[in-house]
Amino acid sequence: MMIHEQMKTIFKDLLNLDDVQGIIFLSHRGKRLFSEYAGATSRDLKDIDWSEFSDSFKCVQEAELVFANNRIFYRRAELGQVIIIMGWFATIAMIRLKCNELLPPIAPDNPDCL
Question: Residue 84 pLDDT more than 90?
Fold first, then answer.
């Protein structure tokens, strides 16, 4: 419980941005280390196994995925992977800025990704 509260404090600024519906923080192997959702989003994402997603994105540094009802912003960092679920009105520039402040970037040292 202590780690969850620490992670919630770290990601508080991201969670408070307009139209951010949730944040998932994964290890580099796809294990969910932290998640926080707003509203119905939690029901939709609660039981997802993120390991395949994580494996598919192992060479991706950053991505924005657009769906019919929302968007997902993905960022790989030194400490893990962040997935931010957001609506149409979330400002991607502000999300990138907050990620830059919170997460040290990862160096592209994986030879499979060069």
Answer: yes
List the 81-86 sheet strands across, edge first: 32-37, 20-26, 81-86, 71-76, 62-66
CA-CA distance, 114 to 112, in Å (whole number)?
6
- Provide the residue ranges of all domains of the chain, joining segments of one domain with +: 12-106
Res. 80: pLDDT tops 70: yes
**Beta bridge partner(s), residue 71:** 66, 86
Q: What is the CATH number of domain 12-106?
A: 3.30.450.30
pTM of the model: 0.84
Which residues, 6+ apart, have CB-to-CB distance to 66 below 8 Å?
A: none
Round to the nearest angstrom and report the end-to-end CA distance of the chain: 38
